[in-house]
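Severity: low
Component: inverse-folding endpoint
Summary: output formatting inconsistent between runs
Steps to reproduce: submit the following structure tokens with default settings.
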């Protein structure tokens, strides 16, 4: 467990992993906290979560600098991530009670069942294990923690090993806000220890955001132990540009959609599928904008793209680009390490054309600032190309044509379709994918109910007059 500055490669601080005894103590504390927390009122939980939001807002700059130090995104991006977490906490504090309000079936169905009354009540499940990634080290956790805590659950966080300071801060934040001891705890453990924790009978369910292999491992264990899971895995999101699009906006937003979090985002637009009629002007503008990005120190306010999070991450990205180049792809810009940045794990914003199915990058997720281009003849080919991936997290479509929008909503295999804009999660909308991008939903009412027991409460006629 270590903070290693991606901009320099320097190991800043190390942390000793928890012993088996420490993990067991925290699991017991989670159970004790759950029995207390589950009986509290929504009004009480709301007060605590709003306090956490206020504390985080007050500490935004320090938290943002920690995020940047640990995983390398620009300070501007880290500040925006922190602000988004504050927004989500406040959203769930205000909406949770309504989202989990008792539901009353139709009177005809109640009467047909022979009941005097029937209601559906949402009750918490218990301690939930959250296995979270480093690319949005605060947001990924908060978008689980805020609804889970408001529902009456408690959380145990196994965060990525390269963001330990952020992980420990989150635990301390909820404690300082007044949540009971053990209500939200960080486990400093390695990936190899997740299986044993998930198998522990004190864990009721799990949520994971991360790689497909990690998702398979958690899903397998959860299936073996019959525990509920929500998985948000990789993505290779398409970005369709059709003839009626505003090309200038599509190119400008497309750059942001590709390089957000230094290109290390599951919902980043990765495959740019462009109609032949507008391919050349779009590509010309898009490549010019990608080439103009400033790569450098993420703490410099003028930097657009910081380093990748790890040396291995850069090596994996280089292998994908080198493989594409070897199989005939054209590198329109970038394609290597920036000159003059000898320390840290930087990679140039890159655009590849001529990508074919025999290239690894056609099928694998490029986790870095690398975009691939696909010219298509018509909407049918655009949709086929967009769906030609094992992933299905989200999608972006630029068009002013109502029929094209209808077709895309009907036919794109993804958890979201965003028209004339880039994919971005919001606390009010469900978020998640299909195919190998996972299952279940986070955020909105869908997310808070994922880890609830929808309990049918049926009342028959009393025997007493």
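Observed output (run 2 of 3):
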């Amino acid at each position: 467990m270590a903070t290693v500055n991606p901009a320099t490669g320097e190991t800043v601080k190390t942390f000793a992993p928890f012993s088996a005894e420490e993990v067991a103590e925290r699991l017991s504390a989670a159970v004790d906290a759950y029995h207390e927390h589950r009986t509290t009122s929504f009004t009480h939980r709301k007060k605590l979560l709003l306090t956490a939001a206020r504390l985080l807002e007050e500490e935004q700059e320090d938290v943002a600098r920690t995020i940047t130090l640990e995983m390398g995104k620009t300070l501007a991006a880290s500040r925006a991530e922190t602000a988004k977490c504050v927004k989500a906490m406040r959203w769930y504090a205000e909406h949770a009670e309504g989202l989990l309000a008792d539901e009353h079936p139709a009177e005809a169905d109640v009467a047909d069942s022979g009941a005097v009354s029937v209601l559906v009540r949402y009750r918490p499940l218990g301690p939930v294990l959250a296995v979270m990634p480093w690319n949005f080290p605060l947001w990924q956790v908060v978008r689980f923690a805020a609804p889970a805590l408001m529902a009456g659950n408690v959380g145990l966080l196994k965060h990525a090993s390269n963001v330990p300071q952020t992980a420990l801060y989150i635990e301390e934040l909820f404690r300082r806000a007044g949540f009971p001891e053990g209500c939200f705890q960080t486990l400093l453990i390695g990936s190899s220890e997740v299986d044993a924790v998930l198998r522990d009978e004190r864990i009721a369910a799990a949520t994971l955001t991360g790689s497909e292999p990690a998702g398979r491992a958690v899903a397998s264990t959860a299936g073996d132990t019959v525990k509920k899971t929500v998985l948000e895995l990789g993505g290779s999101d398409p970005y369709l540009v059709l003839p009626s699009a505003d090309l200038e906006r599509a190119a400008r937003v497309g750059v942001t959609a590709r390089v957000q979090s230094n290109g290390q985002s599951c919902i980043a637009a990765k495959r740019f599928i462009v109609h032949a009629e507008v391919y050349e002007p779009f590509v010309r503008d898009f490549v010019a904008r990608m080439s103009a990005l400033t790569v450098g120190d993420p703490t410099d306010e003028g930097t657009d793209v910081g380093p990748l999070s790890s040396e291995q991450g850069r090596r994996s990205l280089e292998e994908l680009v080198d493989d594409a180049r070897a199989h005939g792809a054209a590198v329109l810009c970038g394609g290597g390490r920036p000159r003059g940045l000898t320390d840290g794990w930087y990679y140039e914003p890159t655009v590849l054309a001529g990508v074919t199915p025999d290239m690894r990058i056609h099928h694998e997720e490029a986790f870095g600032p690398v975009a691939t281009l696909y010219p298509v003849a018509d909407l049918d080919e655009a949709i086929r190309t967009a769906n030609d991936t094992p992933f299905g997290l989200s999608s972006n479509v630029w068009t002013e044509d109502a029929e094209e929008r209808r077709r895309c909503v009907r036919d794109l295999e993804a958890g979201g379709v965003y028209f004339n804009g880039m994919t971005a999660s919001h606390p009010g909308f469900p978020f998640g994918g299909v195919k190998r991008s996972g299952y279940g939903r986070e955020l909105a009412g869908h997310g808070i109910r994922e880890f609830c027991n929808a309990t049918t409460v049926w009342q028959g006629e009393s025997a007493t007059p």
